[in-house]
Amino acid sequence: MRKLRELLRLYKIGKTIFTYGLDELIPARLQVWPARWARKGIFWLKNQHPELSRGKRIRLALESLGPVFIKFGQMLSTRRDLLPPDIAEELALLQDRVPSFDGRLARKQIETSLHAKIETLFDQFDEVPLASASIAQVHTARLKTGQEIVIKVIRPDIERVITADVSLMHSMASLIARLVPERSSRLRPVEVVEEYRKTLFDELNLLREAANAIQLRRNFEGSRTLYVPEIYPSYCHENVLVMERIYGIPVSDIEALEANGTDMKLLAERGVEVFFTQVFRDSFFHADMHPGNIFVSYEHPQDPQWIGIDCGIVGTLNRDDKRYLAENFLAFFNRDYRKVAELHVESGWVPADTKVEEFESAIRTVLEPIFEKPLSEISFGHVLLNLFNTARRFNMAVQPQLVLLQKTLLYVEGVGRQLYPQLDLWKTAKPFLEDWMQQQVGYKAVINAVRENAPFWAEKLPDLPELVYDSLRQAKLHNRQLQRLYEQYSRHHKSQGQGNFLLVMGASLLLGSVLLLGMEETSWAVTGLGITLVVWLLGWSRVSAR
Ligand SMILES: Nc1ncnc2c1ncn2[C@@H]1O[C@H](COP(=O)(O)OP(=O)(O)OP(=O)(O)O)[C@@H](O)[C@H]1O
């Protein structure tokens, strides 16, 4: 039965590919003969949309294949290093317009997951969904405390669909890798699908999203710039997420924002500020900043506050990542491409034998045209993208968390400029980078290191008196041992000296006795030899004494 379902799905995928003429997009030199013959065999499936551009055909095909393919296209749209711009731009328009599922099923899912009846959990529950996306659906409800909430429920059956579709995608990727190996070494289709599989399964576990949202909320506790709705962990489960309901203006609704009297310039600047705070202060950033996930509070529009939801995808950075970003951005700002190239080599980001001049020239070629524009028009997301693409050519393995950050930066810039087209991103970002750099060197770095190690010392402090006593006792013991050793050594040294003296004395006596023997003073000579023997024995005993 499962095999039959898989075959039918495979047929549907094939049919979609052919009716949108996607097979025609493969360059002729890459079309291997078995594939060409197979295509000829399926003569009844023809391209029915020849008038549409290739980007549009790919987008429509993915949309008709459902959520797994739509999300895949959305992910690919940000890989501009892999795709030509026209296709990437069209894929960015992909929308998961998915029909909602029956609210009664959502109710059942919640009750099964939380082991209780909806009525005993909540005061009110709306079976008509507030929103419906590919993986989950959102319902409104009210807690017994009166708090208005939303409940995100994973689509029933979605795990099976994802497992089946991703496994088919895997097979297709492996086939492509085998049929066109030289092309695949750059595109790495199997790895791309594998990365996607992980992302999808991460999104399926709402406890991850809950934990991320709690962390982000804690990081911005009391902030005037960003509000993150409260999560109610006791109502959360892998399939169910319960959080405070927010009322905000969707960021894409410029008219409503203006009608509310929002300070658009400040709002745009605060967007950049929130992003860089997450990156450089917290090393933890919301990485799914598409407009459906960002709202603006209705309150105090002259002091505008962002509201962020959907923490399903977040990025984390380590100190090296931040150093990479800060140092490179600052070098870009000074248009010091030599420094950028040197930084890459010195830090081991590119292999040590990279020719700095060549790398510098490659960076200059892609970035100089961008920096010809006024700063307010420069996209730092694109600058970073171009740098990554160039660095990849010089064998730098770009870290996935940096790619995620670069994509998020593109979103942030896009949203910011939509709100306030003259937004000077750099003016807002530069103080963050400089501040961070300063904290890494000089006295601030020392203070930071002490502060960072403070928990360690705080933990050890109660044990300190005992440790001090122990080490003093140990020191005393060591001192005594040392003293004993020294005395031993002195004694040994002294007896060695005496022994050597006696041995030399004995040798002189021996010489004297031999001379006396030569002079036929036999009795004196024998006495001398006797004394020699005694002196040598004494000397020997001293020298060999320990
Ligand atoms: N706390 C909330 N308060 C009010 N509305 C909310 C809240 N959370 C989600 N929503 C609404 O539900 C929609 C979908 O929510 P969310 O983005 O979390 O789901 P999703 O399944 O991850 O969707 P997508 O995959 O499109 O990001 C939001 O665009 C918003 O309109």
TrEMBL record:
InterPro entries xref list: ABC1_dom, Kinase-like_dom_sf, UbiB, UbiB_bact, UbiB_kinase
Membrane-topology descriptor: Multi-pass membrane protein
Family in the record: Belongs to the ABC1 family. UbiB subfamily.
Source organism (scientific name): Zobellella aerophila
Keyword list, A-Z: ATP-binding, Cell inner membrane, Cell membrane, Kinase, Membrane, Nucleotide-binding, Transferase, Transmembrane, Transmembrane helix, Ubiquinone, Ubiquinone biosynthesis
Localization annotation: Cell membrane
Record protein name field: Probable protein kinase UbiB
Job description of the protein: Is probably a protein kinase regulator of UbiI activity which is involved in aerobic coenzyme Q (ubiquinone) biosynthesis.
Record's signal peptide: none
UniProt keyword annotation of tRNA-binding present: no
Keyword Cell membrane found: yes
UniProt-annotated catalytic positions: 288
Enzyme Commission numbers on file: 2.7.-.-
All copies of domain ABC1 atypical kinase-like, residue ranges: 94-344
Domain of life of the native organism: Bacteria
Transmembrane region(s): 501-518, 524-543
Major subcellular site: membrane
Listed pathway(s): Cofactor biosynthesis; ubiquinone biosynthesis [regulation]
Record: residues binding ATP: 130-138, 152
